[in-house]
């Protein structure tokens, strides 16, 4: 009896403790975590502290560093704080068990992975998702990605990538949110919310990682890993806000970038990591280096050896070392030599321990390791349906001459031609645990839509990227016998992503030659373009009557594209990166500056119109501007109206416009609002996106769209880096893309 009473008392006490923990406010809980972390740090040896700062890959042999070291033995020694590139409940349970049962302090591991556009269910690449301008869908995608990844034991993703890029030569534009900072901040926050949810108490929320801090998307020459060189104004105005948006959304970690800025590599840039990120922005998560980035400070030329690289990085504010082992091998000695204070080590360790407390790993190290959940929450039908929806919404209709599209499902015969027609490698460069074997191809998608009486024929035509023209004849023969031709051209996943920079952005290999040969038949021809970047398709755009930019659409790419081709979904995607006419225009982007001699030049006496900021062999204008995208219906925009012309600093600027669907289909339209500050303290872009609304308008219907702005929406970074607005005259544009001339002028006094 006494024993039973004693057990009951224990259960009551445990329950009270649990209830207290559950119902603590966010601030109180954070303080409790801090107290626990501080207490644990006092128990740790210097070597154990440094072990928490060490992130290793599950295959250390691939790094070329410590090839023969057994990483499981490293875990037992307390030399590992987190592991990347490992997943599955069975495998991770063994690793976690080693950490919590075979080490002195029983500190659990974090498991990280590149969950960039899905885990098992693969969604369109991030650049494609951005073209949907659908924040709710993007958040839903990352929610599914987090559910799947966490079911397989992963609790940390190296996403979102929020680097702004204006250069499609750079292969990693496939992962970025595009060229516009304002839109990218909205996308960044949606992705953080999707991954992290509303509470880490859940078993299906994971820590997000904003990357790559900072300005990784602006490498000189568009070459991956290259230096970045820009003014402070450009850095603050265009490249830092997306990371700040992630911090404001509560992102749990930030990854340093490989590049240098103004001579200092980001991984050892104290001004960037400590002064701005941690002190000014009050970031309370932890900073992790990119893969071997600390070791690479030697090649950058700022460190003589790994010891010096570790010294520079930890003192700059890089808390965790990814894979290079520089911290593990040299920080203890650097502390003993007085070059690194143990307080600096403690601060870094605390940030990592706090993440583990936040995830609930100290309460339950196996929280994310449930075999039944892994068997239940992967590749569910609703996830595949979302992937299909995302693939369709990411498509951008670039051309539809003569309203060739949408096709009728009972068409007599279709020839599907091209090296990407039956290619199922549409996952992009970060397919996580996705399997291309189960991905739907364009051919599959089209075939599934056609009536039984219809015929579908296939010819590869050529390879993706070589000079072989031997398959042209068969492709021409198949096309000549069909009523309609679909050409599947572009890049596959192996040509995009990290370390896939290109100097030639035209169609690879002999694909353009194949297209020109087929187009001589004069058949109704639709080009479906795959790829992870804007391509130079100037000649193809002149010749082909219809073009769909389908990007790399993931597991359900073929099905989603077919929904667009046959009109089950009316395309609504809009470009988030400008399509250049030639590589020589790059970087080309919509929010450029005017210069003192713009084209067209206003009437100015004494100015020779020959001497303008222009090319002598090409128009300045791109092939397709930012925000561009067609629909199967047509939309008519009324003139813009404002609630008044003169505003004070406390007024709300109300802009309205009417959108009429004047075509034959119901459809969605992305209505875009831009501003231009006509006279400012520093030069301003000719247009800046400041708002958009995605609306559904039935055919024959007119909808009124209203935007609300304040003077804060007119603010920018001045020459002294103060963020404020100027009184004066502004232009406000509302239209279907950044090239709109539908504007009205107002004044802020």
Question: Can you describe what's shown?
Answer:
It is built from 22 helices and 27 strands. Helix 8 runs parallel beside helix 10 and helix 13 (306-316) packs across helix 14 (326-336). Among the domains are: 110-339, TIM Barrel (Alpha-Beta Barrel); 396-565, 3-Layer(aba) Sandwich (Rossmann fold); 632-748, Immunoglobulins (Immunoglobulin-like, Sandwich), CATH 2.60.40. It has 749 residues and is an alpha/beta fold.
Strand content: 15-25%
Question: Which structural class should the secondary elements be placed in?
Answer: alpha/beta
Overall 3D shape: globular
Extended strand count: 27
- Using only C-alpha atoms, the radius of gyration works out to 28 Å
Please give the CATH architecture of one domain: Alpha-Beta Barrel
The first-to-last residue Cα distance is 82 Å
Under CATH, the topology of one domain is which? TIM Barrel
Number of helices: 22
Main pleated sheet: 6 strands, mixed
Short description:
The protein is α/β, with parallel strands linked by helices and 749 residues long.
